[in-house]
Design goal:
By secondary structure, this protein is α/β, with parallel strands linked by helices. It has helices at about 35-50, 70-80, 80-90, 105-115, 135-145, 165-175, 185-195, 215, 220-225, 235-245, 260-270, 315-325, 345-355, 370-375, 390-400, 405; strands at about 15-20, 25, 30, 50-55, 95-100, 120-125, 150, 180, 205-210, 230-235, 275, 280, 295, 305-310, 330, 360-365, 385. The protein is built from 16 helices and 17 strands. The strands form four sheets. A six-stranded parallel sheet has the order 5-6-4-1-7-8, sandwiched between helices. Helix 12 packs parallel to helix 13 (about 345-355). The protein binds adenosine monophosphate.
Length: about 400
């Protein structure tokens, strides 16, 4: 695959760059500019080559199924890209950053035409277009018509075959124009490929899974069973497996639709799946009410009026003892409701165990809430790689290294 570093003859050329500027923001106030900063090396590389850089990204969600047009307008307003352009200009003080409030049509065409060499144009939120998520061919063709080349630098969106991630590069590639990986993508693909094509020296390879979005994540387990030596499962996801094993889980989070799948995985696992052996259970997740919190052994079962909110002390030790043997760890999903001090110990124990591996093993956080947890708990710097894409990193593993937004560049 071509990389942005290898791209040549870009003086005066229009380069369409799909970035991930899906920053956390409230009413136009950006809470964290990390995603913008992460795209700077690619942008600067292109600017140094004299290109005219067209940046496109989605921001938040627009629920097009909503029948009330006023509500759609409100969603658009809440996800306006204009404040991001302002933040980008501050991060690139030497460069002229333009913003185009239109996603297509004459206004966008004129804004692109007005760009000079070494200048940047940030387009409006790609999701303002209904056709973006459907990879609408007319929309992709219109965007592609603006560019002489394409660079993909939005790893967090590379698992989605949308107009801006797959439609545009496939049209440009077909037309013989260069399509390339940006610096952020190169780093992500290199690091995550190591978790997909596992070398002997990276064994034992251990995956640690947790978090809440069970149905999103559960399918990756089947693939991980073929790649990992052990899969440790904690967090809300673990109760579906514990129920499948016949344990009492009280009111704990259960993904009933995935029970059969979980049973199937346990049968196939041959002892590779490691589940919690005790639980921190509570009568309520609400910290403002009077609640009972207690530690229960798995054999005892979680009482009918309680729900699991973290792994217990024995599980912390058990999980740490496995992690201590690892040469490679892939982690996605907290072990409990780490946002509350009472329920963060399981996630801290996993972070501590991985921290102890520093210099001895390769460790990857698969984005999303685990990255936030590691950051909030102060362990982010102890990992070899922290991915910017939760969904994308899981899908890359699940699909044996394939992602639509990467495959299209091959
Ligand atoms: P995810 O986005 O799937 O990684 O889920 C992260 C969320 O899962 C965090 O906000 C945690 O508070 C939550 N979580 C983790 N363990 C549990 C649990 N046992 N019960 C409910 N929520 C949990």
């Amino acid at each position: 695959m071509l990389t942005v570093k290898e791209m040549k003859d870009l003086q005066g050329k229009y380069v369409y760059v799909r970035v991930d500027f899906n920053v956390p923001q409230t009413n136009g106030v950006i809470r964290d500019t990390n995603r913008i900063k992460a795209a700077l090396p690619t942008i600067q590389e292109l600017l140094s080559k004299g290109a005219r850089v067209i940046l496109m990204s989605h921001l938040g969600k627009i629920k097009w199924k909503e029948p009330d047009p006023e509500k759609i307008e409100a969603m658009k307003k809440a996800n306006d890209m204009a404040p991001v352009a302002k933040a980008l200009q501050e991060l690139l003080p030497e460069t002229k950053v333009h913003f185009c409030a239109a996603t297509r049509g004459e206004e966008l065409k004129n804004a692109v035409a007005a760009l000079k060499d070494g200048e940047v144009l940030l387009g409006q939120n790609t999701r303002y277009e209904k056709g973006e998520e459907k990879n609408d061919p007319a929309l992709a063709a219109e965007w592609a018509s603006l560019a002489d080349a394409f660079v993909m630098d939005a790893f967090g969106s590379a698992h989605r075959a949308h107009a801006s991630t797959v439609g545009v590069p496939s049209i440009l590639k077909e037309a013989g124009k260069p399509v390339a990986l940006g610096y952020l993508m190169i780093k992500e693909v290199e690091n995550l490929s190591r978790c997909v094509e596992v070398k002997d020296e990276d064994r034992p390879y251990i995956a640690v899974l947790g978090g809440l979005k069970v149905s999103d994540k559960i399918k990756v387990i089947e693939t991980l069973l073929t790649k990992c030596d052990y899969i440790i499962i904690g967090g809300a996801m673990s109760y579906t497996f514990r129920k499948a094993k016949g344990e009492e889980i009280g009111m704990s989070f259960l993904d009933a639709d995935s029970l059969e799948y979980a049973k199937n995985c346990l049968e196939k696992a041959n002892g590779k799946i490691i589940l919690p052996i005790d639980t921190v259970a509570t009568t309520s997740f609400d910290p403002t009410v009077e609640r009972e919190i207690k530690i229960v052994d798995a054999a005892e079962g979680i009482p009918a009026n309680m729900e699991g909110c973290d792994i217990g002390p024995k599980s912390r030790e058990l999980f740490a003892s496995y992690i201590a043997k690892a040469k490679m760890v892939f982690w996605n999903g907290p072990m409990g409701v780490f946002e509350q001090a009472d329920f963060k110990n399981g996630t801290v124990a996993v972070c501590e165990a991985i921290k102890d591996l520093e210099g001895k093993a390769f460790s990857v956080i698969g984005g999303g809430d685990s990255a936030s947890a590691a950051k909030a708990l102060g362990y982010k710097q102890n990992f070899s790689h922290v991915s910017t894409g939760g969904g994308a990193s899981l899908e890359m593993i699940e699909n044996d290294g394939h992602l639509p937004g990467v495959d299209v560049l091959k």
